[in-house]
């Protein structure tokens, strides 16, 4: 009879409680003191002993499985360490809850750094001799904790994860190096996944404290794989996935950093809390991929493609983040929710084929963590391919993204299925303050064959700033790229056109003609909405308002406009928006040669000054008065006209 059962019987006798209650309430600590691999000599006696007086890891697992309750596996292996345990075959699956604590090994200590990882780990599980069909730790019990271990070199062929979690959830994996050497600086990857969560819920990988940080790098497939419809409510926080312990050097997993797939839903990678940020960089495929019916997942507050400081390029080889499914949230408006998605080898974010209802908000895509310096992704900032009804940005404070400094386009929307997407409230080609020139190398927004998308809008907070890009601010290309609405944005200082419709894009709707200023007026397509702007060239830096053309095409915008050049766009009833009109130039004010005299000149002096100028004294006075009113209206309405104070 085991010691634990004898103690339980004693409690029954002395206290009168049921036997089963006492058995479940008890737990044991098994202290591993040997690097050997012998099994336990008697799993019924409650003592970890391989028959020689030694407690091996294998024996401790066998005893824990045989002993009800949450047992603890501690370590006290003699010598300075590190101590390498090299099993000769797969370790037993853990079927009863345990706490495996490598930090109990004398001399070991957890990480204390906010950036980097100075953990001293002294217990290594080396699977090189365990055979092909072996995982480092396989846990089906649930409600177990693993911390302070180095787990590397497990499996071969089609098998071999560092840690495999299945059957029951609620596990915690923290403060460990999975796929590296004991220093966290060299690649000794497990054959497949670093950590594999198979259809189970409510596991936590890492945590928000420095001591909970894992380094999950160098593995032969994915760093972390969350799979199956039962895999919900999992948290991935505070880890370095694809880097070494410093967070500044590459030690990538051979495939994806974090993969969420096969129906895994409502999982969180990162978070808004202090310490929740993961660094997911230097992986050989995507940083994060959400695929195959994995819906309603959140990716927040991470650095994806940068180093741990958020200022240097440590890009994943392909996209920073790739989404194949619906209703996921990337970033958010809450403080700390935005990701930095920069420096990646393909695009920052790729939303593909049928993925719908995804929210992309509050992120820096192509800049560093300050939002003021370029750290571009190689291709596009955001690439939407055949995916409908996704929101890039938003209308409330904090929802807009900075999408700047990327190698081709800021936002690229392509293929006929990419319809109903909204791009609103973003800075595209500028820094977060709308000051620095961080243009994307080609277009700010490129709509390529995709119909029915919205860029900007006339309601508060819907407008984008699209500036300093290497070609057009917005390009709409192709006969199928129709019904794309581009309204009320601040579009300026792009190398090409502010808006260019080519090859039938937006039906190549004719732009308006501006014929007068003060109260701007002109002609446009019949019954079209006309948006009026000021600019210093031929785009539309400052939006003044909208009006509707009459059935005969005439329009007038009430109120003054500031110039120096006035432009306009037209949007028809189907949602097609034209290019900007040819600019209408206002006469200059304030002593510039175009004006015969300064405001405040007397009527008589004005009459003299205008003689021979082509201006009547009355006309001159009306012009000066109108321009003065325009200046006052501009100053009073600047916040409304620009509407940037919201962001």
Overview of this protein structure:
The protein is mainly beta. Among the domains are: 26-108, no CATH class; 515-585, Sandwich (Immunoglobulin-like), CATH 2.60.40.10; 603-646. The chain is built from five helices and 49 strands. The strands form seven sheets. A 15-stranded parallel sheet has the order 1-2-4-7-10-13-16-19-22-25-28-31-34-37-40, with helices on one face. The model is unreliable at 1-25 and 590-647 (pLDDT under 50).
TL;DR of this structure?
The chain is mostly beta strands and 647 residues long. The chain is built from 5 helices and 49 strands.
Class from secondary-structure proportions: mainly beta
Oligomer: single chain
The profile of the biggest β sheet is: 15 strands, parallel
Radius of gyration: 32 Å
Instruction: State the end-to-end distance.
Output: 70 Å
**Strand order within the widest beta sheet:** 1-2-4-7-10-13-16-19-22-25-28-31-34-37-40
**Count, helices:** 5
Number of strands: 49
List low-confidence stretches. 1-25, 590-647
Query: Residue share in helices?
Result: under 10%
Share of β-strand residues: 25-35%
Quick check: average pLDDT?
A: 89
